[in-house]
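S1.2 Input.
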Amino acid sequence: MLNFVFYVLFVGLVVIFASQNLHVVPVYFLISFQAPLVLVVGVSFFIGFSAAILGVLLQAVKRRKKRTDIVVRRNRF
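S1.3 Output.
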């Protein structure tokens, strides 16, 4: 029940943020275009979140590979 309350509160805050940030802003990245501020913030958040998840996954794969190499070396001798 507590998770549901936090979820509803979070969604409510996102809706309030989105409704108050509908102003069109210019975006300059390779090309120039205009987009609503809430869209620019949302896309930026999504790109940052995706980069963080990718970094964590790459570290996990690297750690797993290193641990597998250690096990293989022990089995050889």
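S1.4 Remarks. Helices lie at 2-20, 37-76.
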